[in-house]
Amino acid sequence: MEKKIEVKNLIISFRTQGGKVQAVRNVSFDLLKGETLAIVGESGSGKSVTNRAIMGISAGNAIIEGGEIIYEGQDLLKISEDDFHKLRGDKIAMIFQDPMSSLNPIMRVGKQLTEAMLLKAKSGSRRARNEFNKKLKLLNENMDEACAGDAEKIKSNDEKCKTFDNFCISSTKLESAYNEIYRHAVELKVDIDDLIMLTEKGRKIDAGSKIKRFVKAIAGTYHPDIVVRSEELDSYISVLKSFNDKVIDAGALEALKGISVYIDKATQKRKPNYFTLGFYMMKNKDADVDDIPLDELTEMTRAYLDKEFMLDFIATGSKALENSREKSLRKKRELLVSLQECLAYFRGDTIDKKTAYALVSSAGKQLKNAIDRLEIYKNSTEYTFSSSIESALKKYFDGVKHNPKAQKVFDRQTAKYNALVEKGKTPDWKVVPAMLADLDLAKNNIIKIIENLIESINKNLTEEFDSQTAMVSLIDWFKERASMVVYKVTRKTAKAKALKLLEEVGIPEPTVRYNQYPFEFSGGMRQRIVIAIALAANPDVLICDEPTTALDVTIQSQILELINKLKKERNLSVIFITHDLGVVANMADKIAVMYAGKIVEYGTADDIFYDARHPYTWALLSSMPDLETSEKLDAIPGTPPNMIYPPKGDAFAERNKYALKIDYELEPPQFYVSDTHWAATWLLDPRAPKVERPKIISERIERMKKLWGEQDGE
Amino acid sequence: MENKKDFSSAETLLRVEHLCQYFKMGKGELKAVDDVNFDIKKGEVFGLVGESGCGKTTTGRSIIGLYNITSGKVYFKDKLICLGTSGYSARIKEERKKVAAEIKELKKELSADPSRREDVDKAIKEKEDALAEFTAKEKDELYKALAERQHAEREYVFSEMQKVEDKFAPLLEEARNSGDEKKYAELKKQYAHDLRVASKKRLSTQIQMIFQDPIASLDPRMTVREIISEGLVINGVKDKKYIEEKVYEVLETVGLVREHAGRYPHEFSGGQRQRIGIARAVIMQPEMIIADEPISALDVSIQAQVINLLNDLRDKFGLTILFIAHDLSVVKYFSDRIGVMYFGKMVELASSDELFAHPLHPYTKSLLSAIPLPDPHYEKKRVRMIYNPMAEHDYSEDKPSMREVSPKHFVYCNDKEFENYRKILSEQTSL
């Protein structure tokens, strides 16, 4: 599956008065598309800090000491604030813990929903147009290169690209108009049905103004592909127009019913293929499309299009793609040679700063030229190579520069201390340990980055390439951009979209709620608004930071169900932060348990709930009572460690009743239980004594297994 | 279950009768708590659950006297501690309105048929007399209730003072006879101090409250010592040494150390802060504690610590606890009996095992179906029931009330539902 976000070796500290708090210490995880990752841990375990870094909203005193967060081929830790603006909210959205404090109390809910849409729409459309043009130009160039020498063909290529451009945009325009009117028609039908239902129930309502509105609205739904004006419809409308009473009479009711059925039939029609239709319109600007029946038109345009243009365009495009790929592969082979050179140099004993930087920057430049820009899928290793190797180099040379100084200071202080001790005094201060950078590690990092790139290029060289499918997906990409250009967000469309969102997140009477202030909503409703705002820009990744902690049980399960539903509908990737394991049982595909800034156990939901291995996970699972618990609770004694002075060895050892001697001395590595499941605890070492998980958990699992049977029986 | 005992035979400590708490909202009234009845036995833990805004916190705060209740009575050890007065005047007002309407009707009859003047006059007079009688009766009851509350308070203080007197009288006698002037003076001083403390005692100090948010409920400018001892100081204790000792004692009881007394609340973690809140309640040696969501603001691992602490305290001091929470697993674990509230009304009341085994009211069922369990397999299939009062009940004719469906199991229902519930219950228990 496609990786949405990769977090690699993330290290974050905070500068505070008391010293440097090491909040996140070497955290790595991947978030796949359409997957939910739950991060579980106590407050202060670094789960929120990690996710704030992904959103680019770390606190002012945060220091990002190392690592990468890769999203769509770029490192989120290194891009500029301007670039982040394009991602934050648009691609990665966040739901915060307290819905009251994340809404503006003096702005109406509707305005808060549409504000970002309107602000982002303009720049988004311009950006999409730019991207569209750039890629088309590149394609054009490659087409020319592919049929080098043939002047006539080159000329026709230009023509083709221009046609494609025009036709892409115009077809999307047609489609957007269709969608707009279709929505109106459906909404109108719902309104009319409501009125009919109320009348049949015998309610007395003021129908005059409503019917006037309907008559007006019907005129807005005329479209050759949806509601076609006919004698039947006209007769209904004339009945309604003559209606001037307050209470609906039999004739008007009949007319309303007729219209409802008419619209229903009209909206059941097959949606026309505007991609082909648009092309026909382009070619025959004078043709009156309204007169031709839709099926005939579609057939006609498709037959014409498939043979003449589209196949040709795809064929030429595929050639261009092949050309571009070959060019890139050729350059990559050259690059491999210089990369090997680099590798040999860095593996050597002495590294000179100037040469190193020269080598790396030349390799970087070569790579930049070698990347196949027509490829849609961005290879993250290639795109982040330059920035990551530069930061690795900086770390290494900083170490080279500062290590002797730090050592000197340390030596001087030690000498002073020892002198005092020799005199028989006991100093009231201690020698601060020297902050030495690990040069070997830094060097290894550099080598690893280069090796990774070589591996990725080798893989690329041997990969099979189907230019036809690549071209088709490229055309899809163009279509997507075109829709971004065409769908203009105005105040009106933004409102319509906001109302739809409000309905989607389960808020009754959205039109009334749209104009209310946050204080008029209950806690659960407020959280729904926050979710709607987060979804407004259609993000890929949704980060939920304890979204239900402030809510009670029934509302909590409603919100969880909502997030689950939206995730499935929109294929979202979700990061779900919580301290309550019970909450994530239904939500999570993967679970990462964090403690003191590290992931201590990682696995699928089944791994964690049925086969937990880390004592901290055990403690989390057994410290909360469930419906059958009767014995004394297994509370975790003490509090989390002070992260200004992170404990030596396993951070959880202090509070761990299964702690071994080695836990106080050496940090445990990751022991893999299965392919998807690992835990960082010495208990999994083959030399460790066998420890059974607490009885309370085993008993619960047994009990729950019985419950499954009951569930299935029902 | 070992920690679930039957308290039905124990002495009733708190009795809540027809408790109503309405808040004025614009033109209308918000019925935060509406006609709630329950009693709590000595030594038991009574859980109150429901979604936010259903009035469980308001109930707790009304009992302890943080709000003036609209109507109803709260008895603590059979002594009236809370009394709502506006219920009486509202009833009188209503009766007046009713009688006025009737009289108007009669007068209309009279104008239609002037010959019946005598009959009508008589009828009107009868009605007016009945109204006067009703008003007098209501007023009488109100004054009686007011007097009862005053009396209860006085009686309590008097009995406390009597206790001190009883304790000191023989000692003083002995000291005077022994002729030890110094000892006698000291004793006399002690006697005066204790008497003053006793005279300041109020019934309500026997009930203490632990608040939800451990950060907001502690004054950031007071040290822990000041926070914990504040209750004692207000009650007139002036012996600094005694206060100091008491503070240290409760600090150790709740799992903190003496050194913490000099610190400020911000220097503590969430769990420790909640312990301070508990210490503040425990130092008054209350018989009952109202714990208003004491763990919802805490981390999972700390929650377990606080629950264990409350359990220990309960065993040690024989405390009675009114436990308000929305986390049903915790309430089930901790409480002996549970009351379920929905929009100001108590909808179901039963022992915790009974409630979870045979939930009857649809709202209780929907609450139980919403509990998340730490088991992915089970969770993926869990079906949440949705409670819609409009669809579930038809109360247009048959008015509902609290009825005992089976012994000690009360459900808010009308006659039809009552029969239905009984049937369901008998089917379930016979299986």
Helix-strand layout with pairing:
The complex is a heterodimer of chains A (714) and B (431).
Chain A: E1 3-16, E2 19-32, E3 36-40, H1 47-55, E4 62-71, E5 74-75, H2 81-87, E6 92-95, H3 109-146, H4 151-200, H5 208-219, H6 231-242, H7 250-267, H8 274-283, H9 294-347, H10 353-370, H11 380-422, H12 439-462, H13 467-486, H14 491-504, H15 510-513, H16 523-535, E7 541-545, H17 553-570, E8 573-578, H18 581-584, E9 590-595, E10 598-604, H19 605-610, H20 615-623, E11 671-674, E12 677-679, H21 695-713
Parallel strand pairs in A: 3-8, 3-9, 6-7, 7-8
Antiparallel strand pairs in A: 1-2, 1-4, 4-5, 9-10, 10-12, 11-12
Helix pairs in contact in A: 3-4, 3-9, 3-13, 3-14, 4-7, 4-8, 4-13, 6-7, 8-9, 9-10, 9-12, 9-13, 10-11, 11-12, 14-16, 16-17
Chain B: E1 12-25, E2 28-41, E3 45-49, H1 56-64, E4 71-76, E5 79-85, H2 86-112, H3 117-178, H4 181-200, E6 207-210, H5 224-234, H6 240-253, H7 270-282, E7 288-292, H8 300-317, E8 320-324, H9 328-334, E9 337-342, E10 345-351, H10 352-357, H11 362-369, H12 376-381, H13 389-392, E11 401-406, E12 409-413, H14 415-430
Rough shape of chain B?
A: globular
> What is the rounded Rg of chain A?
32 Å
Structural class of the secondary structure composition of chain A? alpha/beta
Number of strands of chain B: 12
CATH fold-level label of the largest domain in chain A: Rossmann fold
| Class derived from helix and strand content of chain B | alpha/beta
Query: Which stretches of chain A are poorly predicted, pLDDT < 50 over at least 5 residues?
Result: none
Characterize the biggest β-sheet of chain B: 8 strands, mixed
Question: Radius of gyration of chain B from the CA trace?
Answer: 27 Å
Helices and strands of chain B, in order, run as EEEHEEHHHEHHHEHEHEEHHHHEEH
The largest chain-to-chain contact, stated as pair and per-chain residue counts, equals: A-B, 49 and 46 residues
Cα-to-Cα separation, first versus last residue of chain A: 35 Å
Number of helices of chain B: 14
- Gross morphology of chain A is globular
- Approximate strand percentage of chain B: 15-25%
Main beta sheet of chain A, described?
8 strands, mixed
Q: Provide the residue-averaged pLDDT of chain A.
A: 82
Strand sequence of the main sheet of chain A, in spatial order? 6-7-8-3-9-10-12-11
Cα distance spanning the termini of chain B = 21 Å
